Each structure stands twice: as C-alpha cells, then as structure tokens.
Amino acid sequence: MIKNREMDKLITKFNNISDNIDCPHLQEEIITFMKDVYNIPKEIDGCIVEAGCYKGGSTSKFSLVAKKVNRKLVAFDSFKGIPANNEDNGPFLGPDGIRNYVFYEGNYHGTLEEVTENVSKFGNIEICQFIEGWFEDTLPNFSEPIVAIYLDVDLASSTKTCLKYLYPLLVPGGVLYSQDCHIPIVKNVFNDDDFWKQEVGYPKPHIERALIYKKFPRYDTKLIKIVKVE
C-alpha cells in the first residue's frame, strides 16, 4: 500500500513528465494502474510490461513505480509508430464528443533513442528493458512471468496479439489494463468469447471498468481492468 506522502511525490513527478513529454493519456489512468502495482505482494515474482511507449511519457512514469516496488519494466514497441492497417474504428466517444478516428501507419511514432533519452531524464532507465519490433515478431519470444500489463496499442489487431502472448504469462492475481476500450473494435476483442478460448487459451475473464471519468464521463469503459484468476 502506497503512503499518501509517497503518492504526492510521485504525482508531482508525473506532472513534470507530462509537462515535458507528449502524453496521450490522462494522469488518472496511470495512477489507477500504479496503485494496483503497489498492491501486488512482493513475494510474487514477475515483471511489469508496457505495450506501446510512444515518446516514453508513460514509460517514464511506470519506471518510477517499478523502481519503488523493485520490479523490472519491460517496454514493447515498434518505435516506428502504428503499423499499416485497414481497421475501421467507426465512431467512438472522446472528450470532445463522438467522432470517427483513423489510426494511420506511423501515428504515435517515437524512436527508441527518443524514448530512452526521456526515460533517462525523467524516469529510472536502469530497471527498464526495451524490446523493439512489431508485436507479432517480439512477443512470441518473451517468456517471463508478468505481474502487471498496461496496453496502449490502439488497434484491435495489436490488442489481439498482446492478449494472445502476454495474458498466458500473467501470474494469478496479476492485473491487465487497457486504455483503448473506448474504441468499439478493441472493446469487441475483449468481449469475444471465441477469441479468448481459441487464441488466448483461457475462458473470457471478468472485465471491469477501472476508472470513472469525472471530467469526461462519456468515456465510459475507456480504461478496463482484468485480474487473472486461476
């Protein structure tokens, strides 16, 4: 359990990171995930995984938390932006209302050099491992136990790949978060019973809304949480 004073210090550092790095997330999303990371018992072995780094803002924040709980942070990203895709996201809710959004190839591009420079300046680079490449090429080769996963990958196809290869490595009691479930086709992936059984190898788990957006209540289930039960 994190103490109030320690929380205040971390939030001050988080705010400084957001002031210096483009962070396409809300501070509340990172803090909500961070609190669960703190609550994972220390005797449970496993690393923290982030899929989707962009410029390294979230990576910097997660690295501060990983350092506090003495866990390695493994960051997966192409470091080339979003891959080529033909996904039809359809209309979805954002803070500015309903709109259509297309994720083009190269969107959210941050190079490995940019990310490591930002994490070195604002986070704890020494506890980080960066794995560069497309998810379908890198994730199948990863086999370490995981206690917490944070997905910010935007595409349904990328979400499927992450769930297929990372969820089986999540330890019982571990948590998985996605901040993409305001996008209908991503939300559909999480709700697809057949995908969970046939591709992931697990029955569809209980999925809960992780955050109530007071500023943007129409976000509804943007941030979702799964606690792995076995």
General description of the model:
- The chain is of the alpha/beta class and 230 residues long.
- It has one domain (4-227): Vaccinia Virus protein VP39 (Rossmann fold, 3-Layer(aba) Sandwich), CATH 3.40.50.
- Helix content is 37%, strand content 19%.
- It contains eight helices and nine strands.
- Strand 6 (146-151), helix 6 and strand 7 (170-178) form a beta-alpha-beta unit.
- The longest helix has 17 residues, at 4-20.
- The model has no long low-confidence stretch (mean pLDDT 92).
Helix percent reads: 25-40%
Binned strand content: 15-25%
Q: Round the Cα radius of gyration to an integer and report it.
A: 16 Å
Q: Superfamily at the CATH H level?
A: Vaccinia Virus protein VP39
Whole-number average pLDDT? 92
Number of strands: 9
CATH topology: Rossmann fold
In N-to-C order, the SSE pattern is HHEHEEEHEHEHEHHEE
Can you tell me the CATH class? Alpha Beta
The domain count comes to: 1
The largest sheet, given as strand count, sense and whether it forms a barrel, is: 7 strands, mixed
Report, as a whole number of angstroms, the end-to-end distance.
24 Å
Annotate the secondary structure layout:
Blueprint: H1 4-20, H2 27-39, E1 47-51, H3 57-69, E2 73-77, E3 91-94, E4 97-100, H4 112-122, E5 128-132, H5 135-138, E6 146-151, H6 156-166, E7 170-178, H7 184-190, H8 193-200, E8 208-209, E9 224-227
Parallel strand pairs: 1-2, 1-6, 2-5, 6-7
Antiparallel strand pairs: 3-4, 7-9, 8-9
Helix pairs in contact: 1-3, 2-3, 3-4, 6-7, 6-8
